[in-house]
Design goal:
single chain, 368 residues, CbiD-like, 36% helix, 21% strand, disordered N terminus, methyltransferase activity, transferase, Cobalt-precorrin-5B C(1)-methyltransferase, S-adenosyl-L-methionine, CbiD_sf
């Protein structure tokens, strides 16, 4: 475990591991030179050295193994072996995916359908590093494998993105910076591009898996459902930079109430106005003093369902849904329509606005 009092250790992307392995295999194949470490160039400048765990020579190919080291980042690919097999050809350099590397099956990603899920930057890194080792005019066949990749793919975004059979070879900078919020946010945006490529212009944004499940239960097409995690504001901005025509926000009432209060990064330790917001809207609806007292003393936002039902004030949730939509609409500078749906932990829809009804109808949802 990392010492929290010291600087967290940087790791390497699967793309860097693949590039180092491919370069080491090419060098061994061409010159017979074995190496314990291999230096590669980073996309943003500079070099790093990665440890080569094993080299193998076949009849007309060589393989190199590099163990993925994510540093102190909780990366699910940490510890996997990234293997590159290289053989010489008379033509161009051809890059393929082997065991544990996923295959792209849906449009909208940076890699075409039918190709291995090796993203453009690591693809370029691998090819450029291998070129440095080849004789003039020679080509190469490179196969990247990640044994065990298929088993952990369900812990990544790949199943949602239509990438089957394994993980993706990723990395725009070549390094894994521990707990990188930026990297996590940008791992979410391909969902938007894919939905647009499949013809959807009205999308459903939801913070997590419970929201995904609820959206599917309502009959919303799975390819129109976008996970945002806590980054609702960031994902709204990303949608505003694309040809999106409408957004339905769908989530547990606790998250949607935060949006109604103008909180667009919904991690609890950053901002939390749920209790005060629900109480204020209840007061505007004429809630008696005892109801206001109960709401201001809630331990969780979920308790508001029972309290507002008791005082026949459940319309407060519809008002909150409308307020969340207005906040989001203004947040994206009125570039597209926004509607909001909120539900309780038992899955009951407790609040929605007219925008949600309109967009839900377009998406063919089943709601009364």
């Amino acid at each position: 475990m990392a010492n929290l009092n010291s600087r967290l250790r940087t790791g390497y992307t699967t793309g860097s591991c693949a590039a180092a392995a491919a370069k080491a295999a090419a060098r061994y194949l061409v010159s017979g030179s074995e190496c314990g470490k291999m230096a590669i160039s980073l996309p943003r400048g500079g070099q790093v050295e990665l440890k080569i765990d094993r080299l193998e020579r076949g009849r007309d190919f060589c393989r190199a193994h590099v163990t993925k080291d994510a540093g102190d980042d909780p990366d699910v690919t940490h510890g996997l072996s990234v293997i590159a097999e290289v053989s010489l050809t008379d033509g161009e350099i051809i890059l393929a995916g082997g065991d544990g590397v996923g295959l792209v099956t849906k449009p909208g990603l940076s890699v075409p359908v039918g190709e291995p899920a090796i993203n453009p930057v690591p693809r370029q890194m691998i090819i450029e590093e291998v070129k440095k080792e080849l004789p003039p005019g020679a080509g190469a066949s490179i196969i990247i494998s990640v044994p065990g990749g298929e088993a952990i793919a369900d812990k990544t975004m790949n199943p949602r993105l239509g990438i089957v059979g394994g993980i993706s070879i990723l990395g725009t900078g070549g390094l894994v910076r521990p707990m990188s919020e930026e990297a996590y946010r940008h791992s979410l945006t391909p969902q938007i591009d894919q939905a647009l490529a499949l013809g959807y212009r009205t999308l459903v944004l939801t913070p997590g898996l419970l929201g995904v499940k609820k959206a599917k239960e309502l009959g919303i097409p799975p390819d129109a459902i976008i996970e945002t995690s806590n980054f609702i504001g960031f994902m709204l901005e990303e949608c505003s930079n694309r040809s999106v025509e409408g957004i339905m926000l769908l989530g547990h009432l606790g998250k949607m109430v935060k949006v109604a209060a103008g909180v667009f990064h919904t991690l609890g330790k950053l901002a939390d106005a749920r209790r005060e917001t629900i109480t204020a809207y209840a007061a505007l609806e004429g809630a008696p003093q005892e109801a206001i007292f109960s709401l201001m003393n809630m331990n969780t936002a979920e308790e508001s369902v029972e309290i507002l039902e008791r005082y026949q004030l459940t319309r407060v949730f519809d008002r909150l849904a409308a307020a969340a939509s207005i906040r989001a609409y203004r947040y994206v500078h009125e570039k597209f329509k926004v509607g909001t749906v909120m539900y309780s932990l038992n899955g009951q829809v407790v609040g929605l606005d007219n925008g949600a009804k309109e967009m839900g109808g377009k998406l063919g949802w089943k709601i009364s």
